[in-house]
């Protein structure tokens, strides 16, 4: 038997915006032992009837195929696309990062924030809250750099994703 | 077109407003419901009042909500219709959970209506409140909490569509009391577009052609069919018979698939899997093309996965795409209705060049016949008049004597050794006659299932092959049997043990029979009599046939306490963690060298 390597995948779903829809998705992951690394959900149509869910999951290719087919069985789920498997896509998330420091570390934090194009959305004499948008990797490295410079709190949105080019989730 | 679903409002076709409970009745009648299995309570009183005022739907009062669900499952399984259950809020709904999961695992179409406290009280820990949609989410195909009157009728129509479409399953509708008391508009089924999933799409003909080409190339082919063939409807079983006839290939079946192909046909190798026949399991192991039709590679079928049918080209037909490559990697997966795909396979078989491996197929059959000659189900019954009855003897005679009556016969079972022996010894000619809890293995299934089958088929012979431990789990249904004068025949194979537990303790745990002895059993004869049924007991071989005949001939419910040998084990057996070619055989056959590893011991 071949040993399959584990990797991560971004799965995007369109779901009816009804009570319990998110619970169905989350319980499917926990009940079947799949991982959720991040999850975002928000209504995306003009009437607020459809929500888009983006899930970053990890697993072997075959287990991720299983995740997709299991998600497709859910009644309120109208579309499931494994963006990682389907071609180029954009995935972005936002982080709010709080740094409490003074002196040299505070100046250094500000300098790195500028290099990352992070915005200081709250500033006091002893603290900054930086807002940073980008790929998960970029956010990870920014947070790592802030850690020795007085990082005290992080809040991240999880990934929002969309495929590149004129194609939409509807045409897959 | 504006979509109308259970969760969005309707646009047209709204007729007069009626009390919600009456809207519910009307929707059920429109869906063709004839029977509801249920139990009343505070939150469903308005529904029971509406039931009282109408004449289209018959209500069968069970004695426990779990039994309502099992009865509805058997009703559904034996008729092909959707079974309907009605339970009250709180404990009524939680008692139904086991039944719902049983239906989910065995793909049985059900709609369960549950009462709920009024919407303003939800979340307040009201009397008999439960988060029913939360609790039942993982055990149903879909569920609803109807919060708005206009959602009621569309939810009912969509629920039936979901229950019966694709891979069938249970759907629950939670009905707050203010919704059933208050007025609601009626929407007819035609103006509701159900969100049934994309399952049931047209099968890929090219994949069917490739599958048939692989079948034509097979020298040692085998059909492995499951409950999907039965769910697909009688036409699928007809098509399967044609396909087997046409190809001349051998066929084995899962527990849930028994009856789809005639059990008496020489091409049928019996059931495969943990307690499958020697010939079926060895054929599964040695075949070069395995054609899985409506089966799902359950662990009870596959045994040790890396040794499951190791050298075969595998074809898997299933209506549920998530089943393909879930457990066993297959070479050709085809998604769609199995009956339709079998029909396409027949067309392709006739279109493609003639089968060129007839000699190999004959050699394969010769090998199968050699395995069959071992007669793996043979057992020795002491023929003395006062001999202790072997459980196998009892079940075989129930089968043979029931067959002699010539009546259309439905058989339910509880769960355990007797269930496996019944699966081994009963040979079904038709689908929908075999009612058993396969996926979940629910003790207490058989007695309420017999209720459901007899309600659906009042003139048929309905047998429950039971164990003394299992049947006690829903023994209260003798009350339902008495109330509706259901002439079911309950054969309790009484070995004073939870037999399958005892067998595993003998094989895996040094014969330490921890808590598996059925102590302090009731007197089943007196128990039957107290429930207005006939009770019979048999302890000696020379009375066995006469007692079974007496039960079969009696025009009323009968409980037969068949006292059998205590220490019998069910063979053949593939121990957990072993491969199909490592079966343990019975004392009558040669001992085979399977041993149970530590890893095997961890498997259930």
From TrEMBL, chain A:
InterPro entries named among the record's database cross-references: Acetalactate_synth_ssu (IPR004789), Acetolactate_synth/TF_NikR_C (IPR027271), Acetolactate_synth_ssu_C (IPR019455), ACT-like_dom_sf (IPR045865), ACT_dom (IPR002912), AHAS_ACT (IPR039557), AHAS_small-like_ACT (IPR054480)
Record-listed E.C. numbers: 2.2.1.6
Pathway recorded for this protein: Amino-acid biosynthesis; L-valine biosynthesis; L-valine from pyruvate: step 1/4; Amino-acid biosynthesis; L-isoleucine biosynthesis; L-isoleucine from 2-oxobutanoate: step 1/4
Pfam families noted in UniProt: ACT_AHAS_ss, ALS_ss_C
Record field: transmembrane: none
Catalytic activity line of the entry: 2 pyruvate + H(+) = (2S)-2-acetolactate + CO2
Residue ranges of domain ACT in the record: 10-88
The keyword Iron-sulfur is assigned to this record: no
One MF annotation (Gene Ontology) recorded for this entry: acetolactate synthase activity
Keyword set includes Amino-acid biosynthesis: yes
Purpose: Catalyzes the conversion of 2 pyruvate molecules into acetolactate in the first common step of the biosynthetic pathway of the branched-amino acids such as leucine, isoleucine, and valine.
Name used for this protein in its record: Acetolactate synthase small subunit
Organism listed in the record: Acetobacter ghanensis
Lineage summary: Bacteria, Pseudomonadati, Pseudomonadota, Alphaproteobacteria, Acetobacterales
Name of the gene: ilvN
